Every structure is written in C-alpha cells, then in structure tokens.
Amino acid sequence: MAQVYLWLVAGVTLGSMLACSLGEDVLCIHSLDNWTLLDLLRQLERIPPQLCLNDRIDFQFPWQRENFTQMHKTQRTCVRHVMLQQIFKVFITPHSFAAWNHTLLSQLLSCLHHSLEHLQPVEEKNLACPHLGIDVRKYFRRIHTYLEGKKYSSCAWEAVRVEIQVHLVLL
After folding, report:
1. How far apart are CA 86 and CA 152, in angstroms?
2. What is the pLDDT of residue 69?
3. pTM, rounded to two decimals
4. d(CA 34, CA 76)
5. Which burial class, exposed, middle or buried, applies to 103 when counting CB atoms under 10 A from its CB (0-12, 13-18, 19+)?
6. Largest CA-CA distance found in the chain, in angstroms, rounded
7. Beta carbons of 65 and 170 less than 8 angstroms apart
8. DSSP category for residue 111
9. Can you tell me the distance from the alpha carbon of 105 to that of 97, in angstroms, rounded to the nearest whole number?
10. What is the C-alpha separation between 45 and 5, in angstroms, rounded?
11. pLDDT one-digit tens code per residue, 122-150
C-alpha cells in the first residue's frame, strides 16, 4: 500500500513539475508545497482515525468545494495564505508538541513557513483578504475551542489533523 502511495505522489509531483515549467511559478510552488504538507499530515497520524469517530464534529468550514473553485485566483490565494497561517498557529503550540512526533511536526512547521514566505508578497496586494480572512479565523477559532474543550486529547488532535488534511486539498 505504501508503495502505491509513493508512486502516486511521485507521479503527481512529476506532473506538477512539468506544468510548472510552462509558467505560473507561484501556483506551482503552492501545489508542490501542498503535496508535502498533505504527506506530513498523513505521517503525523498516531492512532487510526476510525477509533476517534465519536470525537469528530463539524467545524463549519466556510466554503464548499464548488464555491471555493469559483473564487477568483487572488481570493483563493488570500484564503490559502490565511489558512496556512492558522494551521501554523494550531501546530506551533506547546500542546501540539506534546501530542505529535517532534521531527515530523518540525518538518510540517518548516514547510508551512516556506509556503507562507512565498505567499506573503501576493497576499499583501490583495484587497479581498480582510473579509475572507475573518471567515477563516472564525473557523480556526472553533478548532482551538474544540481542542481546549477536549483537553487536547489524542482523539481531538486526530480529528483536527484529519479536518485540516481534508480542507488543505482544496487549496
């Protein structure tokens, strides 16, 4: 199973690199970073998600897939930037370091930081960011409140990891 996953990731990465050579460098960097972030989030899994089904809740992600794909490119970039900032804030906490493998968590944070550095100049020019950023911050406030309410349990972290992984695919 792991070999199939690696071949799939390698194929997508190669396809992304070929597409990147055609232009749109910033978007290509984001695509490659997303694959890395998704892989690191997958590796963080400590307990099978099915053991934590009772701890899953609807965090009320502000957009559906179809709404998100219809957004203008600069709006999506803004949402991506704020989402990555908020994901960074979730995983930089002492509670997060207590819950996850330190090496993988450090790699995840480094990748998030790298992605944010590439997005910073684009985000600063986007006037839609304040409005869209409010929705993203409300969503992550619900995640933080949930973790606090569950006293940062292993299953709570697993539910958050899966939630972030699911919505990172949209970016």
Report:
1. 17
2. 73
3. 0.78
4. 14
5. exposed
6. 48
7. yes
8. H
9. 7
10. 15
11. 555 556 677 778 889 999 999 999 999 99
